[in-house]
Specification:
Layout lengths: L1 E6 L6 H4 L2 H8 L4 E6 L12 E2 L9 E2 L1 H12 L5 E11 L2 H7 L4 E6 L4 E2 L1 H6 L3 E4 L9 H12 L32 E2 L2 E2 L2 H4 L3 H19 L1 H5 L1
Parallel strand pairs: 1-2, 1-6, 4-7, 5-6, 5-8
Antiparallel strand pairs: 3-4, 9-10
């Protein structure tokens, strides 16, 4: 997979893409990242990428020209998904991450200031995504979240291929409780069923625990 991120602050991504699983995924050749400063595409001699909104109002609005030109240059003759990080977008879910992980090329647009020229929404992007019902300074953190959640689903990225399949939300339920050694820590004991070696009973216990945890913490998921 190829992931291109258009941002005004490319330096924000160096630490994220240079460590942990995201770096390992790139080293393995499962994914390649490119962070592009779309200010480099502006036709303004003063390197402006935003302007005052028509009709008045507070804040500045990103102009269409730099983003249209940057996307045209990056995608070439291909037809990638072009994703706008935006509070008005579709709320991001594990299901959406799994959908995007099947793509070969993603372009993520990180906005700043008051918003985007509406023509960017109408004629440039294929998806608008919000990572939650709150407002951030820009789209960079959202782009990092999407990149991480999609990359870990790519073949060969995780050491255990079943890890992503059994994660919370992947099954529609929250994940069951997990335990490791010691079996008795300060009098707090691991459930006997997990020490039994009976795989069918363990599977049944985990399913029951996942249902109960989801019912208690996220009952809205059960409605789906």
């Amino acid at each position: 997979m190829r992931i291109d991120i258009l941002t005004l602050f490319p330096e924000m991504f160096s630490g994220v893409f240079g460590t942990s699983m995201l770096k390992q995924a790139q080293d393995k050749g499962a994914v390649s990242y490119q962070v592009v400063n779309f200010r480099d595409y502006t036709e303004s001699k003063h390197k402006k990428v935003d302007d005052y909104p028509y009709g008045g109002g507070a804040g500045m609005v990103l102009m269409p020209q730099p983003l249209f030109d940057a996307v045209d240059d990056i995608r070439g003759q291909a037809n990638p998904r072009v994703i706008l990080l935006c509070p008005q977008g579709e709320r991001y879910t594990q299901k959406k991450a799994e959908e995007l992980a099947r793509e070969e090329h993603l372009i993520l647009l990180c906005g700043h200031y008051e918003g985007y020229d509406e023509r960017i929404r109408e004629y440039l992007v294929t998806d608008e995504i919000s990572i939650g019902d709150y407002v951030l300074t820009g789209g960079e953190l959202g782009a990092m979240v999407i990149t991480d959640s999609v990359t870990r689903l790519l073949p060969g990225v995780l050491g255990n291929e079943t890890s992503a399949v059994t994660d919370s939300f992947s099954t529609g339920l929250l994940e069951h409780p997990q335990y490791t050694r010691p079996a008795d820590f300060r009098g707090m004991k691991v459930p006997d069923v997990l020490l039994s070696g009976h795989h069918e009973k363990i599977k049944e216990w985990r399913r029951e625990q996942a249902l109960e945890r989801t019912k208690t913490r996220r009952p809205d998921l059960l409605q789906e």
